[in-house]
Design brief:
about 300 residues, eight-stranded mixed sheet, three-stranded antiparallel sheet, about 25% strand, rod-shaped
Length: about 300
């Protein structure tokens, strides 16, 4: 809560507010963080001090992004609740929220306060749910100013030390009520006890394994070309050697003749280092003497007419 000294000529009223009332105001404002909400403050006043003991939310109020208005239905609900729960108290002021634009009294707020809360000891409480800033405004002479004499009562006090039996909370989370406590487990210190070289080696092995598996997967699932050369005259199949300079015969593999024309073959070094694959030369065997005699006999036989 910010504190600002007043500049008016009259004395400031001292404001005493119950802590539970502040919690209810904050909860009401956070329930609608985009538009303003309003309500009235219930309590009593004594000389120059105001005691705020309860609050009543303004139901059916005309809400807008930058202002809020008490309607006839809102006042009917307020008086009905007051007569039922706080018949001996009086309305000592009002509250409203400023979601996201600070704590002050606008011209519209000043109009409401002057026309509905004009008593010298009636105050206006403003709360911004976005920044958790809050402040109280009241009459200082004939002017409305921000008050700095504010006290918060806590009726939950009175507990002795060590009598609650509650453990020390490890951590807390911000919520609407601010009452929930969440315990967090301590970090496992044994997880980082391994030496640096072991963690480095483990990382290198892991990355290497991933690369090897990726290479094997690409070899299996992605197609790759294999080049073979075929001699059309014999049907023998050849493949390049590892150095790519010569060809070697693929054992046990042969295709039928006539599958390709001689012009389709590539001119590359052959198995014995020749310029191209050439069909093997057919050895010409000399004709036997008997064969030559038979042939001469055929030439000498006269033709029969």
């Amino acid at each position: 809560m910010r504190v600002r000294k007043h500049g008016g000529k009259g004395p400031q009223p001292a404001v005493v507010v119950e802590g539970e009332v502040l919690r209810q105001i904050r909860q009401h404002a956070r329930s609608c963080s985009k538009t303003e909400v309003c309500g009235v403050l219930i309590g009593s006043d004594d000389k120059n001090s105001v005691i705020i003991e309860a609050c009543i939310a303004g139901a059916n109020a005309a809400q807008a992004g930058t202002h809020v208005t008490f309607t006839q239905d809102t006042w009917a609900h307020i008086y009905q609740t007051k007569d039922a729960k706080y018949p001996d108290d009086r309305i000592v002021g009002w509250y409203h929220s400023h979601p996201g634009f600070g704590v002050f009294l606008s011209d519209h707020d000043t109009f409401i306060h002057k026309n509905f809360f004009s008593s010298p000891l009636q105050v206006a409480w403003v709360y911004d749910p976005h920044s958790d800033e809050e402040g109280c405004f009241g009459w200082v002479g004939q002017r409305l100013e921000r008050l700095n004499e504010i006290s918060v009562l806590d009726h939950r006090g009175g507990e002795g030390a060590g009598e609650t039996g509650k453990p020390e909370p490890v951590g807390m989370l911000d919520d609407d009520d601010g009452d929930e406590v969440v315990s967090r487990k301590p970090k496992d210190d044994d997880a980082n006890d391994s030496p640096a070289w072991f963690r480095t080696t483990l990382s290198v092995v892991s990355y290497t394994l991933v690369l090897v598996l990726g290479f094997l997967a690409s070899w299996v699932f992605f197609p790759h070309k294999e080049m073979y050369f075929i001699d059309p005259s014999t049907g023998l199949v050849y493949e390049p050697t590892q150095d790519g300079k010569h060809l070697q015969q693929v054992p046990g593999l042969r295709v039928g003749p006539g599958f390709a024309a001689p012009g389709d073959l590539l001119s590359i070094p052959g198995p014995q280092g020749s310029d191209a694959i050439k069909p093997p030369a057919i050895e010409q065997k000399p004709a036997s003497p008997a064969t030559n005699q038979d042939a001469s006999k055929e030439k000498n036989v006269p033709r029969q007419k």
